Model the fold of this input.
Amino acid sequence: MIRGRSAWTAAAVCVASVLAVPSLAVLASLARPAYRVWAHLWQTQLLEVLGNTLALVAGVGAGTLVVGAGLAWLVVTYRFPGRAAFEWALIVPLAVPAYVIGFAFLGLFEFAGPLQTGLRRWLGDGVRLPELRSYWGVVLMMTLVRARPWSPACRSP
Amino acid sequence: MRTIATIGAVLAGALVALLPSTGAPGPAEIVIYSARSHYNQEPAFDAFTKKTGIQVKIFGGNAPELFERLRAEADRTPADVLITVDAGYLWNAARAGLLARVDSPELLANIPAHLRDPEHRWFGLTTRARTIMYNTRKVAPAELSTYEALADPTWKGRLCLRTSSHVYNQSLLATMIKRHGESRVEATVRGWVANQPVLINSDTKILEAIAAGQCDVGITNTYYLGRLLAKEPALPVAPFWANQATTGTHVNISGAGVTAHAKNRTAAIKLLEFLSSPEAQQMFADSNFEYPANPQAAVNPVVARWGRFRQDDVNVAAAGEFQAAAVRVADRAGYK
Ligand SMILES: [Fe+2]
Done:
């Protein structure tokens, strides 16, 4: 039994180290920094990109806190029809990569997408939905993908 | 333990499947690394096999992947031919010593000089024109003239542009830089940015945005319009041939070169010569709405309706030479 387990461990380490190769390759490139590229980035967009990242961390963090924790709390604390289904269904969005959801939402909700095209046909040419290619659009997308209810299964009685 | 053995076997199998066979291929087979998206459906390769009896084995991937792969494999590469889209990638491969010089009179005669490497290491197979697209209900062709003129404030809020991170617009800027120098191109790009363009990372989506009226004009490759028109002939979008009175419309290529360590060099050259012949060029032109690189081949009827135009005859190698400069100009001008 012990031999079996250590063989599993060895196999797991093998698989993990193969999967780690790309990340290690990226890290290794830091050992030979391209100074001219970094200088150019510093002069042009590095600060802005870092700022965007921090703003997204704040926005998506707040979003997932409210949506994720909120849904988890509802599912754990209350009994309502379909609660058992929600307990696992709420984890499903995690299985879809963020960019896939992003593409799908963009395709549906952008100006040339079916929803806005329909609205314009129905209500007139001036009708606009908020631009999805924006800070709030990105926060919304990433929140929807990342807002996994915080481990409801562990806390359910 | 049997499970472990099974996992091991599966992993080994997966690795073998990932690697092309490095054993000596038979004389009647050549291996291609191709970054053209429909690489396994292109009729020109079947026609080549039918004609010569030489089997063609194609491995796909995007251009940077295939470049890294060729470089990593060095003289052990099974690849005889590299095919990629965008001249910049071919230029990079040639500069890294991955492509060999081919002095074939047939290739030199079939492919115009500006669509091939001056040192004969790569050759254009198809030409892709990147030009101004406009909504036919909102814009009169007389309002349009050059890429540079889209920097005029009259286009404020009316412009859709591809994001600058994509190679297509980098190549456009690179050839402009070759012609006019960095500072003039930077002024143009600043003008584009001042017009608050909608940035979209897909030529197809730009054309859809123009059709839907989100913007009036944009810049895309023409074959994307060909594909959309094939599905929806009434689409209110048409190409305007940019810069006809100045430098000519920007063109790029998909093209090919024989690898530096090709095991079947003779057969590989034969393939390139065939692909540049009017017969194969016709198949390329018909399957993707591109322009044949060989001017003897006719364009697709859908494409023919857009009329003839003058190409910018600056060598497409500029897309590689000035790519870094193009990225720097875009960054400085705030073009995302
Ligand atoms: Fe393309």
Chain A has eight helices and no strands.
